[in-house]
Write a structure and sequence with these properties.
Elements (H helix, E strand, L loop, with lengths): L1 H18 L8 E5 L5 H9 L4 E4 L2 H17 L3 E4 L8 H7 L2 E5 L2 H13 L4 E6 L16 H8 L5 E7 L12 H16 L9 E3 L6 H6 L4 E4 L1 H4 L4
Parallel strand pairs: 1-2, 1-8, 2-3, 3-4, 4-5, 5-6, 6-7
Amino acid sequence: MIRENIIEIRERIVKACAASGRSSSEVTLIAITKNRQPEEVLKAIENGVTDIGENRVQEAMRKFSGLQQVINDKQIKRHFVGHLQTNKIKEALRLFDLIHSVDSVKLAAEIDRQAQRMSQSQDILVQINTSFEESKSGFTPQDAIEAVLEIAKFKNIKIRGLMTMAPVVKNPQEAGVFFKNLRDIRDKINSLALTPYPITHLSMGMSDDFEIAVQEGSTMVRLGRAVFGEQL
């Protein structure tokens, strides 16, 4: 089933890209492995998944240790997509290639401090709450410019892009406005040259709305149920 799901997802990404004049090579499928067994993750990797994501540091520590050989052999990229607690930063820096959910300057400062101590640079995405929902973390769109300016000052962090989550809507097309908002913020940041380098990535789109996210410019879709099926 995982193999068939991945084939279908890639076909849907190709169609969504074609509808917006993009190449499907611009979109990375991140398989979200929260609450999934290592054998399920391995099956996804065997069927072409090159990027995996986790919501919890502790779960990632347990799961990745058993998959370390295949992760190394196939150069699998590891993404952290959940809310990052400051007491988990050190472990997160050891485990993840990209942290999607930097939602405060304070968190960014601590990531920078820990990265400096570990003599490394950490790639991050800045989380923007484009839906203004109280249940979601992230900077408001109005605060995004100032936040990126502040975070860009840290020497051991590199901002690769932005992340958002759309609200749950009956019609996935309704999520498009929230994704477009993130793309517009990214484009404004680049037009103002707020960082020493262009930021490119837009992490947006989940199992119910990834096609509209791709049409609006997503470069990373975070899919759990669409890849692995419903949780039993």
